[in-house]
Amino acid sequence: MARKENADTAANPGRLKQIALTYKMTRRADSKVGLVLAGVGIVTFGVFLAIGFWLGHPVYLGILGFILAFLAMAIVFGRRAERAAFGQMEGQPGAAAAVLENVGRGWTTTPAVAMNRSQDVVHRAVGKAGIVLVAEGNPNRVKSLLAAEKKKMARIVVDVPVHDIIVGDGEGQVPLKKVRTTMLKLPRVLAGPQVTAANDRLRAMGDLMSNMPLPKGPMPKGMRMPRGGKMR
User: Fold this and answer.
1) How far apart are CA 212 and CA 209, in angstroms?
2) What are the transmembrane regions (predicted)?
3) Which residue from 54, 60, 167, 222 has the least number of CB within 10 angstroms?
């Protein structure tokens, strides 16, 4: 019992520190986040407190208002923090890979299965919706990368649907912040064993980055493929 209490005590400072770091990061991109959160909290609490006085139960409604105000602030903070994070990642090579790593359970992500010297890159995710190729870079150049990757996979996986997403804000493209929701909306057509089989075959096929250490998150802008590496 004592060990559990000590573990909880040790974990709390870590959570608070993480929240503080997230707030600082969000504030750098969204200078009004503090005022917005304060406004949401005060308005929510004030409305419930006023209703409490009107009904003759200010204490009960005040407590409920405080709890709901905290919840509303947490929801608003989460959304603005997410928006700030996407804003900082957008336009950076490898940003889509960072998004794919957080799509959720049931998806296996392989970053940078295809890349050219201009840092146009294709990532692959496999789940019950099939295979999803996510490309980022110049729209005209990534189309050839996608076509080459599809042709290669056609020899390895059969009867597995393949979807492609080009990250961007242009026509026919998907904004970075909507990549996750777009993937989750795809119809689930494969069973668990089929997903495993597709992953095994694709893994045996290999990929561009299988022998290279890849840092988590967006790739540095100056990163280049080694001269000896095979380019697609």
Assistant:
1) 5
2) 33-53, 59-78
3) 222
